[in-house]
Amino acid sequence: MEPGQTAAAYSLMVISIPLILQPLAPEPYSLNAPVFPSVTLERDRTLHSLPLNFTLEGMTAEKRVLILLGPTAVGKTGISLLLAEQLKTEIISADSMQIYRGMDIGTAKPSPEERGRIRHHMIDIADPDETFSAGRYVDMVKAIIADLHKKERIPLIVGGTGLYIRTLTRGIFDAPEADRALRKRFHDTEERNPGTLYRKLRELDPKRAEEVHPTDMRRIIRALEVIAKTKRPMSELQKELTTPLPYSFIKIGLTRERGELYRIIEERVDEMFAAGLVEEVRRILRSNPADTPLQAIGYKEVIDYLNGSRDLDEVKWLVKRATRRYAKRQYTWFRKESDIHWVDITGVTEPDELLKRLMEIRELKKLSPGDLV
After folding, report:
1. Exposure of 218 by Cβ count < 10 A (0-12 exposed, 13-18 middle, 19+ buried)?
2. How confident is the model at residue 208 (pLDDT cuts 50, 70, 90)?
């Protein structure tokens, strides 16, 4: 909401959301039927903070959690295994696509051998036809962190999904559940009138619009969905209702020279196709997946190939381009995060040497198994 804007005025703006969807409204909707019956001129209701699913008795702000982050293909998996062994701990994945069963090749999941070497959490915990939110992720991870702390182990969170890492380090608010039918109507509207949804988001929540890319439909639609159901800007709710978790986070970021990273990305994409990515996507499609898994890089492009709209060489090129762009967006996201200890590993590929570089960080030098405070 803009300064000086009344709740009633904002509600009137929110009610205008159905107007951008109405031309696509299927029967039995009439031209004047509301898309969101929950959106009215009633006073804004207040959402409640997300309750913790485990007791915080005995927990202190000094309880430490280590986060290893960085762009895709930078080398997080190899070094995380050695770091977990060094600290005698377990790995918690922070990858929004590795949660899905069957999506193995395209998400570059740790191999069965690697997962047998170190226990991994938050991998293969949902089917592709499920909706999985950041709130559900945080709920599950809090319980895992608590369990590891009870065992006097320092949790090691590894991944590149910035939203997951931000919600862990800053907290999350109690947002409405996903509405697949509503999201489909948003998607249909955008296909017919490209740019409509982002313009509406800029009108209703300028701050949130600044935080998302104009083509990031998943986050744009989520923001509009929250607005439609709460009659308040998502950015406002996040500010008011977010409670930080009671941990002390140590964030380590891996980076490489851009050209080197892009070369690694292209090699990885070639390896994925050689390993059977196309057949993996065929299997996923047979499971009637939800929208989010189908938007994963590599999967949405292969779907175009399976539909006959693109040839395989073009699809490979598109996947490489999309992955490079994703890496760039990850850098942009992480630059907005505070207290990240960046380690340049350009030219280094051996995990042992990578670990040596990391252990030069003062905060890591002080850590040892059982050192939680």
Report:
1. middle
2. very high
The domain of 264 spans: 64-172+244-365
CA-CA distance, 55 to 62, in Å (whole number)?
16
Question: How does strand 248-255 pair with strand 156-159?
Answer: unpaired
CA distance 141 to 275: 31
Task: Judge whether 97 and 293 are in contact, CB under 8 Å.
Answer: yes
**Mapping DSSP to helix (H, G, I), strand (E, B) and coil, where does residue 340 land?**
strand
In this prediction, residue 173 carries a pLDDT of 73
Q: What average pLDDT does the chain have?
A: 84
The Cα-based distances of 211 to 205, 207, 215, 323 in angstroms read: 10, 7, 12, 20
pLDDT for res 5: 60
Inside any domain, residue 75: yes
Task: Dig out the tokens for 27 from the structure.
Answer: 């029967």
Give yes or no for residue 372 having a pLDDT over 70: no
Q: Can you point out the beta strands (E) in 142-256?
A: 156-159, 248-255
Distance between terminal CA atoms of the chain? 41
How many folded domains does the chain comprise?
Answer: 1
The predicted model scores a pTM of 0.72
Residue 140 lies in a domain: yes
Name the 3-class secondary structure at 167: helix
Q: Quick one: which of 41, 37, 33, 35 has its CA closest to 17?
A: 35
Q: What is the domain-level CATH number for residue 285? A: 3.40.50.300
Mean pLDDT to the nearest integer, 146-150: 95
Name beta bridge partners: 18: none
Is the per-residue pLDDT at 260 higher than 80? Answer: yes
Domain for residue 136, yes or no?
Answer: yes
pLDDT tens string 54-75: 233 343 435 899 999 999 999 9
Name the helix (H) or strand (E) containing 271.
Answer: helix 258-275
pLDDT single digits (tens) 261-273 = 999 999 999 999 9
Amino acid identity at 331: Y
In a domain, 76, yes or no: yes
